[in-house]
Amino acid sequence: MHQRNQPLFSRSDSTSSSDVSEDLDMSGPTVPPPNAEIPLWSTTADGELIYAKKEIANAPLVSGHPDLYAPLFRNVSTFKRSYELMEGLLKVYIYHDGAKPIFHSPYLKGIYASEGWFMKLIEGDQDFVVRDPNRAHLFYLPYSSRQLQHNLYVPGSNTLEPLSIFVKNYIDMISAKFPYWNRTKGADHFFVACHDWGPYTTKLHGELRKNTIKALCNADLSEGVFIRGRDVSLPETYVRAPRKPLNGIGGKPASQRSILAFFAGQMHGRVRPILLWHWGDKDADMRIYSRLPRRITRRMNYVQHMKSSKYCICPMGYEVNSPRIVEAIYYECVPVIIADNFVLPFDDVLDWSAFSVVVPERDVPRLKEVLLEIPESRYVAMQSNVRKVQRHFLWHVKPVKYDIFHMILHSVWFSRVNQVLQVQ
């Protein structure tokens, strides 16, 4: 696996109640948080969002939908109606300002590829994107957090200040040149960032940090940046072959998975060393390694292990997110997620208890016990659900209905619908 950038500074584990809103209720839209901004003037798009909000609140009951498996969702009826409205109404304006490589330069390979794939596909889209910003419900800020890190971070400097200054200057330029940011103070704008440092580059611009919809892989509630109910937890997808993003997808059926649990990876962050200490090379059922030994890779490589294991352990690294979660889904292995304060991808619509196991960090010493307590019938159901939910995490060179591109866009849309206020 690729090495992540190490953390630059320590952060508090406390969460301010003023910074984190309540869970979205998938039975209907939520009341916007107290700091929701009233637009300076109303547009046709605002009226359409208000209409969508009412429609979603009164979504007709869905039963036996051929493309949507209800147990995977918090409320399949709400999701289906919201998705339909997104398809019929949503218009996105993409700012053309900004020079490459930081802007308009999708990074399509590796563990930060989600932000690049979204950028590539939205900029090539002909259904949602509009040239007239006055028609837009959402405004996309097309910069890459990975390119920010690659082009602006000074190795050894131990500071993200140049990145934060760059982002602040960009937003200041957008708000001075166009009226759209100022209309809502950024509440109808969004960006997509998978690099670990994405959240921290917003710190010098208060409206960007508090109002904008942030689609982040690093969706950590404990740090006061990610706001549940407004922000979007972005799946971290490890793309090995950009020309064939679906290469190698699949795995063995439940009955042929002989390994109880598997993990191999670098020992960074607070969880992985504890995982290795308790389970590394100590139990034949628990295949836990810091790095796969050569004697083992000669017989079975990393991907083959994931395809042959019942449970794939997905501990946080430097940050709460991990590409192993989506990897496990790709290889049809039930993810076991160990990362306190992590908002799971598409948590606004998906019921993760149907296809994964979330284990508190404190329970790592009894991890095998936790897994063995799961009845076989429950495991088989979860593994089947992993196969069913897989479609919602797949990148396609040309996007298809309900795939990861559309799921990300839906989560941003759903957030905006829930935040919109009637102008008096």
Quickly list its features.
32% helix; 5-stranded parallel beta sheet; 424 residues; 10 strands; alpha/beta
Architecture overview:
The protein is of the alpha/beta class and 424 residues long. The chain has 14 helices and 10 strands. The strands form 2 sheets. A 5-stranded parallel β-sheet has the order 1-2-3-4-5. Strand 6, helix 8 and strand 7 form a beta-alpha-beta unit.
Mean pLDDT: 91
Strand percentage lies at 5-15%
Instruction: Catalogue the unreliable spans.
Output: 8-34
Q: How many runs of DSSP E, i.e. beta strands?
A: 10
User: Which outline best applies?
Assistant: globular
Structural category: alpha/beta
Please estimate the helix content: 25-40%
Largest sheet: 5 strands, parallel
What letter string, H or E per element, gives the SSE order? HHEHEHHHEHEEEHEHHEHEEHHH
Distance between the termini: 53 Å
Q: What's the tally of helices?
A: 14
Using only C-alpha atoms, the radius of gyration works out to 21 Å
Topology:
Blueprint: H1 44-57, H2 76-89, E1 92-94, H3 113-123, E2 138-140, H4 145-152, H5 161-177, H6 180-184, E3 189-193, H7 206-210, E4 213-216, E5 232-233, E6 259-264, H8 272-279, E7 286-289, H9 294-297, H10 302-308, E8 309-315, H11 324-330, E9 334-338, E10 357-358, H12 367-372, H13 376-389, H14 404-419
Parallel strand pairs: 1-2, 2-3, 3-4, 4-5, 6-7, 6-8, 8-9, 9-10
Helix pairs in contact: 1-2
